[in-house]
Amino acid sequence: QVQLVESGGGSVQAGGSLRLSCAASGRTFIMYTMGWFRQTPGKEREFVAAIHRSVSSTYYADSVKGRFTISRDNAENMVYLQMNSLKPEDTAVYYCAGARSYLYSRRDAYDYWGQGTQVTVSS
User: What is the 3-state secondary structure of the chain?
Assistant: First the structure.
């Protein structure tokens, strides 16, 4: 019903920036909340940032607040994550996700997931 494809991952030195993109296709109108999560080996997938469709309210994990910015282009069915001042601890696979719910930080609130894109930050 909905397909999500991430792009923009890569390797960067600490202090650098990357911009992740998520292209949505299919029944995109059913997704009220779009979010980004990340996961490292052996750890739970954790919430990074989310944005609501109607009022574009944004939410961030404390660990990325002030450094990352989430945005969306509803006309183009795109979601972005601008990541600045990257740290080695930001290294992870980043996943784009879509939810019909207004809930934004819980993994189980999301109905659709992309395949992930690797971000590696070296010190």
Answer: CEEEEEECCEEEECCCCEEEEEEEEECHHHCCEEEEEEECCCCCCEEEEEEECCCCCEEECCCCCCCEEEEEECCCCEEEEEECCCCHHHCEEEEEEEECCCCCCCHHHCCEECCCEEEEEEC
